[in-house]
Amino acid sequence: VEKPCIHATLLIGSVACLLLALFWDKITVINGSKHSVAITVINGSKHSVAFLTLTALLAVVDCTTSVLYLPFMAHFKSKYLASYLTGQALSGLIPSLLAFAQGASDNPECITSTTTHEVYPKYPEPRFSVGVFYGCLLCLVGLSWLSFVLLNRMSRCRKEWVLYSKKSADFKGRASGRTVSTGSDVSSSDASVDSSPESCGHKSAQKLDTEPNEQTISRRTFIALLLTQAYICSLTNGLLPSIQSYSCMPYGNTAYFLAVNISSIVNPISCLIAFYVKPKWIIATLPGAIGLGTVCAIYAMVTAVLSPTPPLQHTGTGRALIVLTWVSIAGLFAYSRACIASVLRNNTAGAGHKSLFFCGVFTQIGSTVGAVIMLSQAS
């Protein structure tokens, strides 16, 4: 069921980016006044309905990826999950680099009016227009769509598909933590396997995910991992992005710029590191990474609450500490999310598809809770 939904979301994203690239600055005349296609008044300010609608459609595409792409990756060998998570992290880095190339991070110049003697900011002209920026995003969405088609159609890609047994997808009896084999021990007469056309009936598909002697996890551990995933995403996708400017800007534009951009670089690197760590070390390092990330998040929140006069504001130590804090948050939580996805994929005895689906669901639950909390505080 993921395939048609993924195609639908990519279509929506492509259309939204195309319309934004073409019409983001188009206006129409209504009763002698110029308006941007359609206008609505929110909190006393005028906003473009078309722009808000198209942006909301892009947000829908972004929010559905975790519940669609993660389960889809269960059809492939587990080693490819690292590629997905790294690509997901790069999806934030590439648009940031585009915005940087556009000149969005350039500081404004303070100009004094010769008539009123008031000081007002003069922002530098962008190196390329907003339409070009959305055009670049459209190219990225198109490239993603092409890649998805090739993953399903190319014989070389289909060789990496695996089957999973739905009989073993039930977590009943897993509390014993017994070791099971997910190799060729499964009978070929077992009819309850994934029936997707790319898997069943294709010689290029493997019989089953070949991870010998996988250790199952208990129901309690499974639920704990999902709740941890929701907790991390409530911070990284909901709470912390809303306060980052309040936390960093008192230390200067340079500190804010470094915190945002270095975090975007550290994110995919942390995902890659997680998949080169041995399983026994994942269990040992995961609690420490989450705990240290939580400490850094608390410090970031404290600086935001104390803004505009946070601790060590006018010192080099304060600037270095705030950058290190936000980079650590990005790296530690990205590592933790990758570890959780790896454990759910490899240690659920054939239920990797179902486990990754729930991982995506709890990702969105956590993100929603964090966003609602910050929205309620802002309003």
As a whole number of angstroms, the C-alpha radius of gyration is 24 Å
Say how many strands there are.
Answer: 8
What is the H/E order? HEEEEHHEEHHEEHHHHH
Beta content: 5-15%
Q: How is the biggest beta sheet arranged? A: 2 strands, antiparallel
Mean pLDDT: 78
Query: Order of strands in the sheet with the most strands?
Result: 1-2
As a percent range, the share of helical residues equals 55-70%
Distance from first to last alpha carbon: 38 Å
What general form does the structure show? globular
**Unreliably modeled segments:** 165-213
Instruction: Give the count of helical stretches.
Output: 10
- Which structural class fits the helix and strand makeup? mainly alpha
Catalytic activity: riboflavin(in) = riboflavin(out)
Family: Belongs to the riboflavin transporter family.
Membrane topology: Multi-pass membrane protein
Protein name: Riboflavin transporter
What keyword list fits this structure?
transport; 379 residues; riboflavin transmembrane transporter activity; globular; two-stranded antiparallel sheet; membrane; mainly alpha; two-stranded antiparallel ribbon; Riboflavin_transptr; 10 helices
List the helices and strands and how they pair.
Elements: H1 2-23, E1 28-30, E2 33-35, E3 39-42, E4 45-48, H2 49-73, H3 81-102, E5 109-112, E6 119-122, H4 130-153, H5 155-158, E7 179-180, E8 214-215, H6 219-248, H7 253-274, H8 279-305, H9 316-346, H10 352-378
Antiparallel strand pairs: 1-2, 3-4, 5-6, 7-8
Question: What does this molecule look like?
Answer:
The protein is mainly alpha-helical and 379 residues long. Among the domains are: 35 residues, no CATH class; 162 residues. 62% of the residues lie in helices and 7% in strands. The chain has ten helices and eight strands. The strands form four sheets. Strands 1-2 form a two-stranded antiparallel ribbon. β3 and β4 form a beta hairpin. α1 packs antiparallel against α4, α2 runs antiparallel to α10 and α6 runs parallel beside α10. It is globular and about 75 Å long. About 13% of the residues have low confidence. Its main location: membrane. This is Riboflavin transporter.
